[in-house]
Design a protein that fits this description.
The structure holds two protein chains of two kinds.
Chain A (H helix, E strand, L loop, with lengths): L4 H10 L5 H18 L2 H17 L12 H13 L2 H21 L6 H20 L2 H11 L5 H8 L3 H19 L2 H14 L2
Helix pairs in contact in A: 2-3, 2-4, 3-4, 4-8, 5-6, 6-9, 7-9, 8-9, 9-10
Chain B lengths: L5 H5 L2 H4 L7 H14 L18 E4 L2 H11 L3 E2 L13 E5 L2 E7 L10 H4 L5 E5 L3 H10 L3 E8 L4 E7 L5 E7 H9 L1
Parallel strand pairs in B: 1-4, 5-8
Antiparallel strand pairs in B: 2-3, 3-4, 6-7, 7-8
The chains are: A mainly alpha, B alpha/beta.
């Protein structure tokens, strides 16, 4: 990529149409991010929202930055946070899929292992939904989107230290929520009640 | 990375349910809307029609293929439609009013083979271009392997055939009547 995103965005202050290149570079990544978090049909509209918001706020983008991707992820994460009902529906649908998939697609001798795996995925998916929003956001940017600590800090506008602490709390909670059937029930209930 | 996040990584929706990426038309449409919203709408950003039929070609190195096809054969990428993914990129390339999709070869990619793996091409893409002679010289100088020379054919086309980097076969032609009309005007 020859011209940095910072330079393109600086250029777009004078020539708005130049901002189209930012969509060309990052549109498909952002769409995939949104489609993982909400239903793909809603992701399409949210993608439009993300880039319109980015366009309106482009004067705040630091022009010496190479990549606008963390910044766009931050905008998208906020947009997703406002659609938490849709996110919850997406997680429930995934939990169903992971349970059914393990049951039908394995030969008999692997059926038991598959059922175990299915139950494990279901627990993971349930646990994602049970995490406090701030921890879920950081964990998913890290594990699903493969952003670095620095990029997550930039995206969410929080210090790197906070990224680390949320990640480690989220990890511990996820571990407890997915440890096993007994542990799951207990800690899930606890986590929801504690309201963190 | 420690392993405790592996179940979380594996539970990403597109890993739980491996699927084709979404229709690139979504990206084309959303970009057109963005350009309209920011007042930079141009003819190029207008909503394009869906193509009812287009082939998908498989390459071991689809990134190199994209570079070669645009450089040697003059195909133009629908840039906003590109899907980048660690397991392989998908791109849609246009020439005149046709489009071809390219992606990575392999059993996990619809079982499609590159001619490098198959040992031979099993299909040919036919393309009508403007100024076949210029097209031929561009392809040849970019290193395309010419497998049928540029010549006038009895059915009224001037044509040549070439292999791309991995051996997919392409047939490029122009109607002789169009060449004549051009030289007369």
């Amino acid at each position: 990529m020859d011209v940095s995103d910072g330079a393109v965005i600086a250029d777009s202050l004078e020539r708005p149409a130049a901002f189209g290149a930012i969509f060309d570079r990052h549109g498909s990544s952002l769409f995939r991010f949104l489609a993982r978090r909400v239903h793909p049909s809603e992701a399409e509209d949210l993608l439009g929202d993300v880039f319109r918001i980015a366009f309106e706020r482009r004067s705040a983008f630091e022009r010496d930055r190479d990549s606008a991707r963390p910044w766009l992820y931050g905008i998208a994460a906020n947009v997703v946070a406002k659609h938490y009902r849709s996110e919850a529906r997406r997680l429930r649908a995934m939990a169903r899929v992971s349970a059914e998939r393990a049951v039908d697609d394995d030969p008999a001798e692997r059926a038991v292992a598959a059922a175990d795996a299915g139950a494990r995925w279901t627990r993971v998916v349930d646990a994602i939904g049970a995490l406090p929003a701030a921890e879920r956001q950081v964990l998913l940017l890290f594990a699903w989107e493969e952003l670095s600590y620095d990029e997550i800090a930039l995206a969410l506008g929080i210090p790197v230290g906070t990224v680390r602490s949320r990640l480690s709390r989220g990890r511990a909670r996820l571990g407890a929520l997915t440890a096993g059937p007994g542990a799951t029930t207990h800690s899930a209930a606890h986590s929801v009640r504690s309201g963190r | 990375m420690t392993d405790d996040l592996e179940p979380l990584r594996q539970s990403r929706p597109d890993r739980l349910l491996p699927d084709d990426p979404p229709d690139p038309e979504i990206l084309v449409l959303q970009k057109a809307r963005l350009m309209t919203a920011i007042g930079g709408a141009t003819a190029a950003a207008e909503h394009r029609r869906n193509f009812s039929l287009y082939p998908r070609l498989a390459y071991r190195d689809e990134v190199a293929a994209l570079d070669f096809l645009t450089r040697a054969f003059g195909l133009v990428e629908q840039r906003e439609a590109r899907m980048e993914h660690p397991d392989g990129m998908l791109a849609w390339l246009e020439i005149a009013d046709g489009v071809v999709m390219i992606g990575r070869a392999g059993s996990e990619h619809h079982g499609l083979l590159s001619p490098l793996d198959a040992g031979a091409p099993t299909a040919m893409v036919n393309v009508y271009v403007h100024d076949i002679d210029a097209h031929y010289h561009r392809a040849e100088s970019a290193g395309a392997q010419i497998v049928m020379p540029l010549e006038d054919m009895f059915w009224g086309d001037r044509r040549y055939e070439a292999l791309d980097l991995e051996g997919h076969r392409w047939h490029f032609a122009e109607r002789l009547s169009e060449i004549r009309a051009r030289s007369e005007s």
